[in-house]
């Protein structure tokens, strides 16, 4: 066990928390910052028993395991490389795992079933560890959650910066193209953050880490994610749990020390190396790069379109005030203005596809302007030169995916 780090005060009841196997952490939501930091530190140095194999610390990697490849690019599983968890292993609907992860899990199941064949009573102790409660969602579910979150973010910015009569931007938007121009303006003025990009959403904790397909969660036995002491008493100090993690570890699945009911594909295990080869090849075969992809750009425009549809439903008309003028009346002058109400023009999904397909060059240039604002701020001399370069690239016979990837990489890596 490591020594207590300088700078952390020793709690009064420390003698009751140190055991021969480790330190019992009392970390839980609701602690102040100093207490939370101290309890987190105690959990790191002794929160799991010394006699257990080392578990993954996914917090150490900022919960990005399976969200970044070996090139540090944001990724999402290829659906064709996922397997749906069968009903005998779960009571949940539509859970998915990477095929290798799922194969390793089933190997554990068959191994336990074989070893317990002549002692059926012992099989019960593994039952909670052999039922998957959480795994990856289908990609379309992830897409839809992103669309909803991003469209709400856009609507909120529009309400605050445009609908409010005290702001500089007036709501005289009559169609989707003008709405898109205003959203671009809000991005350039930093009223809409980089979180609107799908790759940023994938990295966000709102996109569950289990969506990588490289891990799953079994029954938590009523223990919450923040209840460190209960993790110790319910999982780490029970002989049953020791047997469970040993079985999974032998097959290539390592437990998460912060979430002991979560098991993760171990890419350093010999079984993984024998089956998948190297990590880089594994990521290329099983994951798509989403940052700078056609999917990311189209999902962004989908979200803007969804936000515009909400505007049409809630505020189908807008008021436009013409320039005021002086009216000369006998004995006095008065200043008048004329206001008129207009109906916003509809813009359906067919129109959106036309914008993304037939008018791709214009759409990409506008997207590039927004990307530059999100990554580099509005003023960037290199971006002017890039727009000229992009115009040359658009004249070449390049596919959309290549053009978008080129645009994203160039703008993100301006120096």
Would you tell me the structural class of the helices and strands? mainly alpha
User: In total, how many domains does the architecture comprise?
Assistant: 3
Count of helical segments? 14
Q: Approximately how much beta-strand content do the residues carry? A: 5-15%
Helix content: 40-55%
Give the spatial strand order of the biggest sheet: 4-6-5
Sheet with the most strands?
3 strands, antiparallel
Radius of gyration, in angstroms, nearest whole number: 28 Å
Distance between the termini: 45 Å
Number of strands: 11
Gross morphology? elongated
Q: Give unreliable regions as ranges.
A: 1-8, 14-27
What is the residue-mean pLDDT, rounded to a whole number? 86
Query: How would you spell out the order of helices and strands?
Result: HEEEHHHHEHHEEHHEHEEEEHHHH
Describe the structure.
- The protein has 415 residues and is mainly alpha-helical.
- It folds into three domains: 33 residues, no CATH class; 150 residues, 2-Layer Sandwich (Muramoyl-pentapeptide Carboxypeptidase, domain 2), CATH 3.30.1380; 190 residues, no CATH class.
- Helices cover 45% and strands 11% of the residues.
- The protein has 14 helices and eleven strands.
- The chain has a three-stranded antiparallel β-sheet with strand order 4-6-5. Strands 1-7 form a two-stranded antiparallel sheet. It has a two-stranded antiparallel sheet with strand order 2-3.
- Strand 9 and strand 10 form a beta hairpin.
- Helix 12 packs parallel to helix 14.
- It is elongated and about 105 Å long.
Chain-wise SSE layout:
Layout: H1 33-46, E1 75-77, E2 82-84, E3 96-98, H2 99-115, H3 139-163, H4 176-188, H5 198-203, E4 215-217, H6 228-236, H7 239-251, E5 253-256, E6 259-265, H8 270-276, H9 279-286, E7 287-289, H10 294-314, E8 317-321, E9 325-329, E10 332-336, E11 339-343, H11 349-357, H12 360-376, H13 381-395, H14 400-412
Antiparallel strand pairs: 1-7, 2-3, 4-6, 5-6, 8-11, 9-10
Helix pairs in contact: 2-7, 3-10, 12-13, 12-14, 13-14
